[in-house]
Each structure stands twice: as structure tokens, then as C-alpha cells.
Design brief:
By secondary structure, this protein is α+β, with helices and mostly antiparallel strands. The protein has 2 domains: 99 residues, 2-Layer Sandwich (Phosphorylase Kinase, domain 1); 240 residues, Aminoglycoside phosphotransferase (APH), C-terminal lobe (Aminoglycoside 3'-phosphotransferase, Chain: A, domain 2). The protein is built from 12 helices and 9 strands. The strands form 3 sheets. A 5-stranded antiparallel beta sheet has the order 1-2-3-5-4. A hairpin with a 3-residue loop joins strand 2 and strand 3. Helix 3 packs parallel to helix 9, helix 8 packs antiparallel against helix 9 and helix 10 packs antiparallel against helix 11. It starts with a helix and ends with a helix. Bound molecules: 2-acetamido-2-deoxy-1-O-phosphono-alpha-D-glucopyranose and magnesium ion. This is Phosphotransferase.
């Protein structure tokens, strides 16, 4: 099947090797070696992304804008087939696209030091900043309600009302804790009504493996644009906090290993402000720590909801997997909340430095 697919890019004769690549929960990715080049092949999960054409249109629209206004920016645009298509549908197999592998680039699945966090945050800030004059309302919505915390909360309360007694009982403690953070949803609703919060081109999946680094560990660009949509900066900064602050990630089941590391917090804020300081409003800059709480709470609710709904969305390698992931995120949320005042003070100092 892969060979048949690559034929459409006139690559079959020269493919030497291909292998599964990366560790995303949603799409499936392969790295393909040919005699003279290297590619990334990806199948879009169309149970999740029900309109793959929307992803394809977004990435091509952004590519055109960047090529025209910032030609020196390295951007991973999809390769076109001999029929001028960048998205291929194979009935029964799914939707596929191919990217050129950027030479001498590498990614991290584990964040090794704050300097990498700074580089990553700078790249996500740069991406939004370069696209400041691109009309974000032009982008197609690839996942409706993706970072809508009110919707995620409603999905959670629906799951509470429909889940089995057995699951509700097993998850009781996590549910009790999750319910104490509902104020994070209320704050989100004030943001929606606040004209000082701007909608910009937002990546919505800022984990470290979505940044390419060069051999000197400087950031090159961001990748995985499937969830690029109009959004608020709290999505991108918040998901960096969710995934960079703790040395133990969302899969960790020993909750004592979860921590909020201040040097990583500083790196995220400084990296982002190095690009976005003049774009963000003074009001928005008050919400850096909130951004972390917003994304961590949303992910906790999504994992907990999935556990209550019999693990229908995220994969689960054992029955309690999504419950453990939810408890992990609630633990991180508690630790971040404890440091909130101290961290907010650091943001004000950094914002003043970048004036
Ligand atoms: C999913 O597939 P992956 O790992 O890039 C999810 C994110 C979650 C993440 C949690 C489309 O991302 O929102 O934060 O899992 N993406 C989608 O690991 O639901
Ligand atoms: Mg992703």
C-alpha cells in the first residue's frame, strides 16, 4: 500500500526503506528513505479529523503566505503528486500526505534542558507572529471546539450523567478534585467576552516533538499543522506549560515524580515574549500562568471524560489508563496552582525586560 501511494509521487523505484516514526496518539507517521532523499509520510486519522481536506487547504494557504512574505522561513509544506494534489485518498486505507524531511533536523520526544524549551517557545511565538497579517478567519476549522473549555466541560458533565456506576465509583476521587477547578472554566468565559483577547493563527499542539531543531539545537520551525486554527495565545503557551514543566509526562503513573520546574517556566515565557511581546496586549500578558491551568485542566477533563466513556477517543493500553492520565494532569494542575503567585511575579519582570 505504501509503495502504491509513493508511486503517485513518482517515488516507487527509488524507495530503499520505510519505518514507523514518532509517537502521536492520533495520526500514523512513517519515515521513508529513497536513494536521494528522505520523506515523512502521514496518514490522517479521519475518525478524529473528519474533514482532512480542510487541513490540506489550511497548510497550503499558510505556505503561500509565508513563501510570499517570509521566503527565508523554512516551512514543511506537503509535496504535490504528479496530479497536483497534496492529499491522497485511498478508499479503505485513509488520507495521506508526504513531506520532505528537512536536512540535518531532529526532534525531541523528551525535553532535555530549559534552552530547548526557550527555542521551542520562540518558534511557536515566531509562527504566530509571522502570520500576524494573515487573516486567521480564513482558516478552516479542522476540529470544531478543539480548545473550547466550556465544551470540554459540558462533555465531561454529560459523561458523568451517562457513565456506568462502576466507572463513576472508581473515578470518584478524581471527579471530586476535578470539580473543585470549575472556576478555570468561568475565567475562560470571561476571556471569550474580553475584546482585549485577540484571535490569532494558533498552532494548538505545542509539544516538544512538534519543533524541528538543527545540529546546534537552535529551533528551525514548527511542524504538525493539523490543528492550526484561529485561537488564543493561552492554547499554545498553556500546552507548553502542560508538557514542558514537569520532568514526568502525562503517561507517568508515579504521581510523586510530577513537578513544576521554574527554569522551564521562565524559558517558555521568555522564548514566547522574545517574539510576541509587542503583539500581546497588556491584558493578555496577565494570563501566562492561567494559560497553563487552562490547558492542564482541559486535558484532565478530556482524559477523565474518555475514561468515563469507555476509552473511545484516546487509546488505552489498560482499563484505567485514561483515569491515570487524568489523575496525572490533576496533580500537575495542583502543583502549578500552588506556585501561581510566585510565577506571575516572574512574568511581570520578563515582560518589562522585553519592552
Ligand atoms: C493528542 O496525537 P497527539 O499526541 O499529537 C490530542 C491532543 C492532546 C494529546 C495528549 C487531535 O495529540 O489534543 O493534548 O493527544 N490531539 C487531538 O497526549 O485530539
Ligand atoms: Mg498532533
Amino acid at each position: 500500500m505504501i509503495k502504491n501511494l509513493l508511486q503517485q509521487f513518482n517515488l516507487t523505484d527509488t524507495v530503499t526503506h520505510y519505518t514507523i516514526f514518532g509517537n502521536g496518539l492520533i495520526n500514523r507517521t512513517w519515515v521513508v528513505d529513497t536513494v536521494d532523499n528522505k520523506y515523512i509520510l502521514q496518514r490522517i486519522n479521519d475518525n478524529v479529523f473528519t474533514n482532512p481536506a480542510a487541513i490540506d487547504e489550511n497548510i497550503n494557504a499558510i505556505n503561500q503566505f509565508l513563501k510570499c512574505h517570509f521566503p527565508e522561513y523554512i516551512f514543511t509544506a506537503p509535496v504535490f503528486t504528479s496530479n497536483h494534489k497534496s492529499l491522497i485518498h485511498i478508499p479503505g486505507e485513509g488520507y495521506f500526505r508526504l513531506f520532505e524531511f528537512i536536512p540535518d533536523s531532529h526532534t525531541y520526544t523528551v525535553l532535555e534542558n530549559p534552552a530547548l524549551a526557550f527555542e521551542a517557545s520562540q518558534q511557536f511565538g515566531k509562527f504566530t507572529k509571522l502570520l500576524a497579517d494573515f487573516d486567521s478567519s480564513q482558516l478552516k476549522i479542522t476540529l470544531s471546539g478543539f480548545h473550547n473549555l466550556s465544551l470540554r466541560y459540558t462533555q465531561y458533565t454529560t459523561a458523568l450523567a451517562t457513565s456506568s456506576a462502576a466507572r463513576l465509583s472508581i473515578a470518584q476521587e478524581a471527579i471530586t478534585i476535578a470539580n473543585t477547578y470549575v472556576h478555570i472554566v468561568e475565567t475562560y468565559e470571561t476571556i471569550l467576552a474580553n475584546p482585549l483577547f485577540k484571535k490569532r493563527v494558533t498552532h494548538h499542539d505545542t509539544k516538544i516533538s512538534n519543533v524541528l531543531f538543527n545540529s546546534h539545537n537552535r529551533g528551525i520551525c514548527v511542524i504538525d499543522l493539523d490543528t492550526v486554527m484561529p485561537g488564543y495565545f493561552i492554547s499554545d503557551v498553556g500546552d507548553m506549560m502542560r508538557t514542558y514543566l514537569s520532568p514526568a509526562g502525562e503517561e507517568e503513573t508515579d504521581m510523586t515524580k510530577i513537578e513544576v520546574r521554574e527554569p522551564y517556566f521562565d524559558a517558555i515565557v521568555q522564548g514566547y515574549l522574545s517574539q510576541m511581546n509587542t503583539e500581546l496586549t497588556t491584558e493578555e500578558k496577565k494570563y501566562f500562568v492561567y494559560a497553563g491551568k487552562f490547558m492542564i485542566y482541559m486535558q484532565a477533563l478530556r482524559f477523565l471524560t474518555d475514561y468515563l466513556n469507555n476509552n473511545i477517543y484516546y487509546g488505552a493500553s489498560y482499563e484505567l489508563h485514561n483515569l491515570h492520565r487524568a489523575i496525572n494532569q490533576l496533580t500537575l494542575l495542583q502543583l502549578l496552582t500552588q506556585k501561581e503567585d510566585a510565577l506571575n511575579k516572574r512574568v511581570s519582570v520578563f515582560a518589562a525586560q522585553y519592552q
